[in-house]
Amino acid sequence: MTEKFYPANARARDPSVAGGGAPAAKTRGNGSHVVVIGAGIAGLTAAYRLQQAGMRVTVLEAAGMVGGRMGDRRSGEIVFNSGARLIYPFGRVFNRLIADLALGDALIPLRNLSARCVTPRGDHLIELMPTARSLMTPGLPMGERLALIAHGVRMRLQRGRVDPDWAVSALDVDPEADRLTLADYIRGEIGPHALASLVDPVFRATRSFNAETLSSLFYRTTVPHLVGEDTVHTLRGGMGFVCQTLAGQLDVRTGARVASVEHRREAGVLRVAVTLADGGMLAADHVVCAVEGSLAGALIRTPQTAEREMLAQVRYNALGVVHYGFAQPLPALMQFASRDIASRISTFQQMPAAPASGRPLTQLYCQLTPEAVEEVRRRGCTDDIDTLLRDELRARIPDFDRHVVAVVNQWIPRKLPVFAPGYGERLRAFWHWQEDPARASERPVVYCGDWTSQALLTGACASGERAARIVLDRAQIQAKRTDS
Ligand SMILES: Cc1cc2nc3c(=O)[nH]c(=O)nc-3n(C[C@H](O)[C@H](O)[C@H](O)COP(=O)(O)OP(=O)(O)OC[C@H]3O[C@@H](n4cnc5c(N)ncnc54)[C@H](O)[C@@H]3O)c2cc1C
């Protein structure tokens, strides 16, 4: 294999751009070369903060475009997201990034988002951000209504104690939070009816998880910041806009799949060799690995015990979505399904055509239930999910086949990291390991991404900034050692 050493940072721009509130003072970086693997929001945030601090940064991205699970796709006349659709307002690090990039005007507020929850007993309204109206949910016994009020107050009071960017921050309030499943937690806190009519449909429709799969960490760190709020955001220019803006200020190489990362001593100096799938190689002083956690393990040649054990734990759920382009106008509609209704679709959305916003056709968004995802896997029909949904859609919409003019099957093998019970405790220990100053001289790879923080784009962004801080701390420790 021939080794190509690419010139580092060939296209990098002035690292002093923006900066208000950036955690890394420009003087802290000592000109070291950092390779960031993965150009999702986590990797790009890390790269941006490191470059601001004076480091030379190269970002390597396997795909042909940046953004990862925060991007936009188009197939013919159908537009859709590669992942995230909403920006929750509570991400402090993400909000600071938006301010630094002067992108505040690109945030489009969406107020009072709600869905009709379809159950065998009739429909009811579900709000994404719980309010007093949640008390009107039909079928809730009086005891659960009272428990819901008390729960809402308790959640609101915990706002200052939990950080929505860090799922493990719930452990500071309740060390048991990581051991309880979300289902057990809600049953104990409020009751089984609230679980079935409120929490479970939302988690299945927005997260594609059943409540017994997850620990209570995500719920207990985000809900305190949602109670009493009414606004989420989307982005003018598409969900990938922030990532594209970041990439425009960095040296990012797309189509550059990393095959391995290896520590080497060259003339007595420790360097990290990053080898690409095409045989190219970069030498770096530090490496930030911002790829999906379940892929990271295969890249690291000689992992230390802590990283090998952590990476072996990372799992994702999968997701299937079918997007239809429809020739007939349909009214806007958002439906979630309760678990006891016979449907393979957990989220059903009708979006009227909006040519001025780049959506020329009426679109239907059909997201599979967790059970239907398993069925697709079993049948091996990830490219043809549509066939599983047709009968149900024909029953919903008259003359369905006649009006469908385009279909896109979207299979996402890694949708969200699974914070199963016990995962949070491991994760907390892993960050201690990453941040231990004793690691400065060994310079193991620093990991970030939603699997290290919170299964949201805001969490991924926060983890990128934290990874940058670790690299800067290590560089500073090394510089001090060299000086003394
Ligand atoms: C369908 C869906 C809906 C979602 N909805 C929301 C939402 O509404 N709101 C919200 O906040 N969050 C949502 N999320 C979660 C959010 O999208 C993610 O948490 C976030 O985007 C993850 O960012 P990341 O940088 O950690 O990872 P990624 O975006 O996955 O970035 C990892 C990058 O690494 C690259 N990579 C992988 N292997 C290699 C390699 N060997 N070499 C080089 N590059 C490599 C990948 O191509 C990718 O670009 C959703 C996710 C999905 C999938």
UniProtKB/TrEMBL annotation:
Region (Disordered): 1-25
Gene3D superfamilies, per database record: FAD/NAD(P)-binding domain (3.50.50.60)
One Pfam family here: Amino_oxidase
Residue intervals of the Amine oxidase domain: 41-472
Molecular function terms, GO-annotated: oxidoreductase activity
PANTHER family linked: PROTOPORPHYRINOGEN OXIDASE
Protein name: Oxygen-dependent protoporphyrinogen oxidase
Organism classification: Bacteria, Pseudomonadati, Pseudomonadota, Betaproteobacteria, Burkholderiales
